[in-house]
Amino acid sequence: MTGDSIVRFAQRMEQLPPYLFGMINNMRMKKRAEGDDVIDLGMGNPIDPAPDAVTRKLCEVVQDPKSHRYPVAAGLRNLRKEIAKYYERDYGVSLDSENEVICTIGSKEGISHLCLALVGPGDTVLVPTPAFPIHVYATIIAGGNVIRIPLAEEDVFLSRIATMCESLYPSPKVLILNYPHNPTGALASLDLFTEVVKLARKYRFMVIQDFAYAKVTFDGYHAPSLMQVPGARNVGVEFGSFSKSYNMAGWRIGYCVGNREIIQGLAKIKGYYDYGIFSAIQIAGIVALRDCDADVVQQVRVYQQRRDVLCHGLRRIGWPVSEPRAGMFVWTRIPPPYDSMGSMEFGIKLMEEANVAVAPGIGFGEEGEGYLRLALVENVHRIRQALRQMGKVLKGLKSPAETVEPREEVSTASSSEMRDCSDGGEAQVNPMEMSR
Fold it and tell me: Which of 13, 64, 349, 381 is most buried when burial is the number of CB atoms within 10 A of its CB?
């Protein structure tokens, strides 16, 4: 509140930093309004169209006035049945579509509302870091505490989870996983999920697995589902999304499957907060799951080609990078000597001077500092152009040690402000935690 304003926000608002992607979008839109052609590698917002069959079905159903009524909050029965069939077909998992499947307005909404159902003041949630922001802030908004566990090799990661469970009282209530991982591209094996389920049963915590990039996999890799592990439905749920596999990001349609009690809790919260997904979109989602496997395969080929072009080009201009085997991002360390600038300042430099938008690693938590996340959303011609423009900036950019004049301030959040977003609502328990 400022001056004579009567506006008083809740205390939780003080724990929410400026949203990274909103800041990047605002900077990009401002430059485009000024006539600059900004190549957007910052946000995972697909530019490719949804499958034709999906769009045609939407246009057909939207003509029916019945589709304009309030939908069922939990999702159309036939869509939930189709999600269950998809799990049976792709993962060999049999789900009860009535009690173990619920539709959500994208996975981000589902995770946020589920945290309201599961987490409250005094509860602790474990989150691997660096982390997609909602995995941290859904807990903080719900009033809980977050403990960050740095991503590591599977045995080390599992050991850290066990240590946290044994060290804290009360013990952690929820573990949030995200494989294939955003932003780093880290992968999980079925063995990892098996051990997580064992730990969850031993220490009595619930598991939320964000499976948004389930089908965006390369080089013969197939991402396992948490639900494939015997006993997984006793301890957790898994969220899926139509956004990436089917290029339906703006349609806002996803789902959650698994433990029926957790599904019931999510349904209860959603019953108060929303009326579900527009029915025409849900029916189009049925077509996507039923008829569009070939479209997903083709889209993955497109992402793989973009990945190869981007990674090859980055190495040519001196960036150490490895090809990710899943997801729609390349996670890369900022090359020396520019890494000392910090990811926010370096990212702004690329936006201002190369007309290339990227996601600074600090936006994914303190553990992401020194990295950038580059999205595979532009076509290969635009990616090559971005690489040329980035290369020119690197050639002309003095290293921080050579810089004499201070850099002019920019009207956006600083790296320190972005670091602050890592601290709100966290339980500071063990230095080991603060090492996605």
Answer: 349
Residue with tokens 């999920």: 193
User: Domains of the chain by range and CATH?
Assistant: 12-44+295-420 (3.90.1150.10), 52-291 (3.40.640.10)
pTM over 0.85: yes
pLDDT in tens, 113-152: 999 999 999 999 999 999 999 999 999 999 999 999 999 9
For 184, the token pair is: 């780093």
Q: Residue 54: count other Cβ atoms within 10 Å of its Cβ.
A: 26
Torsion of CA 154, 159, 161, 165, to 10 degrees: 160
| Token representation of residue 165 | 């469970």
Tens digits of residue pLDDT in 67-111: 999 998 899 999 999 999 999 999 999 999 999 999 999 999 999
How many Å apart are CA 234 and CA 262, to the nearest integer? 10
Sign of the four-CA dihedral 335, 339, 344, 347: negative
Q: Give the C-alpha distances (Å, rounded to integers) separating 259 from 31, 239, 264, 420.
A: 47, 12, 9, 35
Spatial separation of the C-alpha atoms in residues 89 and 215, rounded to whole Å:
13
Residues facing 323 on adjacent strands:
none
List the structure tokens of 161: 């989870």
Tokens of 30: 């401002």
pLDDT at 423 over 90: no
